[in-house]
Amino acid sequence: MDLPKIDGTPVDDPSLKVLVANNSDTLKLLKMSSCPHVSPAGILCVADQCHGLRELALNYHLLSDELLLALSSEKHVRLEHLRIDVVSENPGQTHFHTLEKSSWDAFLRHSPKVNLVMYFFLYEEEFDPFFRYETPVTHLYFGRSVSKEVLGRVGMTCPRLVELVVCANGLRPLDEELIRIAERCKNLSAIGLGECGVSCSAFVEFVKMCGGRLSQLSIMEEVLIPDQKYSLEQIHWEVSKHLGRVWFPDMMPTW
């Protein structure tokens, strides 16, 4: 069962403890992405008591090494879906802690098929604690501009990546970063690039390396940079050839 809707409510640790006590044997889904009055200790209580929990959504400030280890205990069922929202409203005002690699490793050993979804709404200077070592994320969404350096680290540390969506990166070409992601993220099947510059040659090479497993491929035509090998007219045919289906870049609305 699911708990009554508590995401976005003033639920706190004591009230959460009561809810959990009454549903500990049947709770399978819990969404707590927007519960500012719940502490890491409060969510840890859920993991310790609700061993049948299969899906969990929470804000990054509730995620701890202790929680990952609790979700990895022999008593706990294998988690199927974990969503983490990493959000900053005021640059420089929010501290983001670093999790131990050993905690992620234990979590993945216990739940090897888990979908780990991470939404980032950070400013560029706040990414330092993230993607410093291998992370088992499968679906990764950047809702604000993200630097070339961070995307380069994604390619080095996210081998389980299935889907990547990048809102913007300041239009600095992402040629090397895309190639690295294609090389190392062997499960990647969906990618969306917003205001992200990339040369036509690098984009074709990226698609060639990923091939037909790219079931979703979205990029605005306006951010593709023509070069000596490919024009904007040629890229449609070349990408379609490597995908094995007809493909066109997205077009900016003209209203």
TrEMBL record:
Transmembrane segments: none annotated. It comes from the Eukaryota. GO terms for cellular component: mitochondrion. SUPFAM superfamilies: RNI-like (SSF52047). This is F-box/LRR-repeat protein 3. It comes from Thamnophis sirtalis. The gene is LOC106556505.
